[in-house]
From TrEMBL, chain A:
<dbReference type="InterPro" id="IPR010065">
    <property type="entry name" value="AA_ABC_transptr_permease_3TM"/>
</dbReference>
<feature type="transmembrane region" description="Helical">
    <location>
        <begin position="15"/>
        <end position="42"/>
    </location>
</feature>
<feature type="transmembrane region" description="Helical">
    <location>
        <begin position="185"/>
        <end position="206"/>
    </location>
</feature>
<comment type="similarity">
    <text>Belongs to the binding-protein-dependent transport system permease family. HisMQ subfamily.</text>
</comment>
<dbReference type="InterPro" id="IPR035906">
    <property type="entry name" value="MetI-like_sf"/>
</dbReference>
<keyword id="KW-0472">Membrane</keyword>
<dbReference type="Pfam" id="PF00528">
    <property type="entry name" value="BPD_transp_1"/>
</dbReference>
<keyword id="KW-0813">Transport</keyword>
<dbReference type="InterPro" id="IPR043429">
    <property type="entry name" value="ArtM/GltK/GlnP/TcyL/YhdX-like"/>
</dbReference>
TrEMBL record, chain B:
<dbReference type="InterPro" id="IPR003439">
    <property type="entry name" value="ABC_transporter-like_ATP-bd"/>
</dbReference>
<keyword id="KW-0472">Membrane</keyword>
<keyword id="KW-0029">Amino-acid transport</keyword>
<dbReference type="InterPro" id="IPR050086">
    <property type="entry name" value="MetN_ABC_transporter-like"/>
</dbReference>
<comment type="similarity">
    <text>Belongs to the ABC transporter superfamily.</text>
</comment>
<feature type="domain" description="ABC transporter">
    <location>
        <begin position="9"/>
        <end position="252"/>
    </location>
</feature>
<keyword id="KW-1003">Cell membrane</keyword>
<dbReference type="InterPro" id="IPR027417">
    <property type="entry name" value="P-loop_NTPase"/>
</dbReference>
<dbReference type="InterPro" id="IPR030679">
    <property type="entry name" value="ABC_ATPase_HisP-typ"/>
</dbReference>
Amino acid sequence: MATILYALPFLLQGFLITLWVSALVVVFSLAGGLVLGVGLVYGPRTVQWLVRLFSDCIRGIPILVLIFVVYYGFPPLGIAINAFWAGVVALTLFKGAQVIEYVRGAISSIPKGQMEAGKAIGLTFVQRLRYVIFPQAVRRFLPPWINGVTDAVKGSALISLLGIVDLMQSINEVIGRTYEAMPLYLLGAFIYFAINYSLSLTSRFVERRYAYIRD
Amino acid sequence: MNANQQPLLKIDDLRKSFGQANILKGIDMAVNKGEAVAIIGPSGSGKTTLLRCVNFLETYEEGSIRIDGQEVGYRDGGNRQRRGETDLARMRAETGMVFQSFNLFPHLTAAENVMLGLTKVRRKPKQEAREIAEHWLKRVGLDHRIDNLPSELSGGQQQRVGIARAVAMEPKILLLDEITSALDPELVNEVLDVVRQLAEEGMTMLMVTHEIAFARDASHRIVFMDDGKVAAEGPPKELMAQAGSNQRLDAFLSRFRTSHLH
C-alpha cells in the first residue's frame, strides 16, 4: 500500500501522457481515416488503389515495427522527429488504416438508392455525405471505432519502448526504484482497464442511441 | 398546346451502352409542358435507363437530353464537357424523381425528408420549408404522419412521402420510375390516385410503368419502347389501336389483356 501511495504521483504524470498520446492519435487518425475512407469508396480508381495499398501495407505490419520504422527511418530521410512524435505518427498511421476500413464498411452498408435520392433532389456530393450518408453510416461506424479507441490506448503502451514516460514507462521506473513489480503492474493494469472499460460502456450506450434505423 | 412552343424535355438520338450491351439505340422523344407521358415496354427494353439518363443518374455519351433548352449532363458549347458537381446538382434540382424502392432517408421524419432539399438546395428558411412540407404531405393524404419516421409508415405511405419530397421542390418535370412495383396490390391505388391528380393539375411527368390501365387513363401519351428504341407512340387510344399492326406491341399488350386488365 505504501508503495502504491508512493507511486501515484509518478503514475499520474505517465497517465496524462498516455491520455495525451491517445487523444492525439484518435483525433488525427479519425480525420485522416475519414478523408481516405471516403476516397476509397468514392474516389477515382487511382485514389482507390493508393488508399487500398496504404491500408493493406500498414495493417500488415506489427505496430511495434511501425513505431521503430518511423523513429529510426524518418531522420535519415531528412525528417527530424523526436521520440514523442515518432510514437504519435506511428500509432496514427496504424489507427488511421483501421479507421479507413471502418469508414468503408459503414458507407458500403448504406443502400445505393440513398445516394441517388440525394442526387435527385439536387444535393451536391458534400451535402449528400453530410446530410444523407454520414448520419446513417455513423451508427455502423461508432461501435467498432470506439473499440478501436481502446486499442489505441492499449497500443500507446508500446511507445514506452522509445523511452517516453507514459503510464507504462512510469510504472517501470517506479518498479526500478522499489523492486515491487507485481502490485505496480496490477495497478497499471487496473488503470488501463478503467479507461477502456468506460470506453466500452460508451460504445454500448452509443449503439443503443443509434438503433433507430431498421435493418 | 402551342405548336411552335419548344418542348420542355427534348431527347435526340440518345444512345447508351453498358460494356458490349447496347441499351438505348437512338431515342428521340419530346415532352411538352403540362404533358403526362407514360413509357411502357418489356423489361430490358431500356425504359428505366432512359428515365435515369434524364436526371443524369446514368451518364449518356451519345445524343442529347435538353430540359428547357439546357443540356442535362454536359456544359453548353461544342466540346461536350461534363458539368461540374455543383452545376450538375443545380440541373438535377430541376427534375424530381420518385423511385421504385422509395429511397426515403430513414433517419429523417416524413417532414424532414421533404424539407432537406428545400433548405439545403432551395435555401429556404426552416419555417417556410416546414410549411411547404406540411402542405404537400397533406396533399398526398398524410396529415397524420408528418412527424413519423419512414420505418413507421406502410409502403404506400412511404411512396407518397417520396412523391411529396419530389414535387415540393417544384421541379419542371417529374420522373416516376415504376413507383408501384414494390407495393402490395392493395396499396397501389392510393399512390396512383396522387399521381393522377398531379397529372390533372398540369404537372409535367414522364413515367415508366407496368400499370397499363393506369397509363391509359392518366397519361396524355404513351410511348412503347422495345429493344432500346421507341417502337410506337401516341395518345392512349391511338396506341392501343396500333396494336393490330404492330406485332411487338400486340404481344406486349396481350399479356396484360389476359392478366392485368379486368
